[in-house]
Write a structure and sequence with these properties.
It is a single chain. The protein is an alpha/beta fold and about 425 residues long. It folds into two domains: about 160 residues, Aspartate Aminotransferase, domain 1 (Alpha-Beta Complex); about 240 residues, Aspartate Aminotransferase, domain 2, CATH 3.40.640.10. The chain has 14 helices and 15 strands. The protein has a seven-stranded mixed beta sheet, with helices on both faces. α3 crosses α11 and α11 packs parallel to α14. The longest helix is centred in the C-terminal third of the chain and has 28 residues.
Amino acid sequence: MTGFDVDAIRRRFPALERRYDGAPLSFFDGPGGTQVPDSVIEAVADYYRTSNANHGGAFATSERSDAIAHEAHVAMADMLGAADPAEIKFGANMTTLTFHVSRSIGATLEPGDEVVVTSLDHQANIDPWLAMAADRGLTVRVVDIRDDDATLDLDSLDAVLGPRTRLVAFGWASNAVGTINPVAEVVRRARAVGAQTYVDAVHFAPHGPIDVRAIDTDFLVCSAYKFFGPHAGVLYGKRDVLEALPAYKVRPADDRFETGTANFEGLAGTLAAVDYLAWIGRTWGSAGETADRATAVRAAMHAIRTAEMALYARLADGLESIPGARVHGITDRSRFDDRTPTAAVTLEGIAPREAATALGREGIATWDGDFYATGLIERLGLAAAGGVLRIGLVHYNSAEEVDRLLASLERIAAGTTSASSAV
């Protein structure tokens, strides 16, 4: 592996050249949606220029559009480690896909069956199951977190699993506090009681490698706009599991789970996003220049993980030196393998919105609030105070940007920069 060249990476992202009030914009808002490289922008534009047509036509643009859509399914199978591109389903977003497939899963369950969710998760992997359970007369059980580090309590998981458990829905990583769950172990414990698993990998996908066959999950969902692509949701489902489910579709539709006309330009952009990751793997990862796409993407995600966590250590060091700053979640450096480079921060006496506003006026993009991890922020006792300030690093962030962010936060914490006075 050669050195990870963040400057070369940044040149691929036109948005990173933008300036605000004379200063460069710094994007630490990745957990809410990443910026996209030039090749993704061009792929979407080129689709409109050369391939814009509906599915199944006996003419050139429709045939080209269908070929792009097929290759997008193959690309996502490569990225997720799926055995068959038919196991990949595209939709509007993870939330919409989950509501859709929950209806099919629910139709196979009986009153008194049990569904397990967690208090660590985004509501998009909780509320669809609550709604489905209410419709079908199911029991919902909740896995709790550990108070000290906001990690999933596996003893709590064992306590709720039982002979009537039919589905365990949980996240690969928390979009609020960055906790990475022991995914394969949770799947194993669910499998031991005969339950299926539904994994939300939206937050983890831009930060590390995913192999659905290695973890043996039945379902996994992610969103392309979180891993440098356009707004599109992706569902993986084991082929035999999908085929066993009833489908809610119009009669002539070819696919049982991709309803309506696809977002073909989004599929073109998603294909380009996966190919961008493969480029990283071949250029700076352990994959050679001639490596196939699946191998190259895995190498990219390992390289990205290494670069991001080195940068996160720099951020963590700086946050620890700011009086009144607290990071919620895993702070023990020996356990950083169990977290993403996403920091949930509170500043004593300063509302998260005020801090985010002050940073925004300095051209630094962060998020504040609960980020739809509503139950988790309530569980941590932070909802009434406005949640947390979320700082999300991705591989195109630089050390200079982190230092700039820390300097701004130090001024905000000291009261020398406020939401009303920041420039």
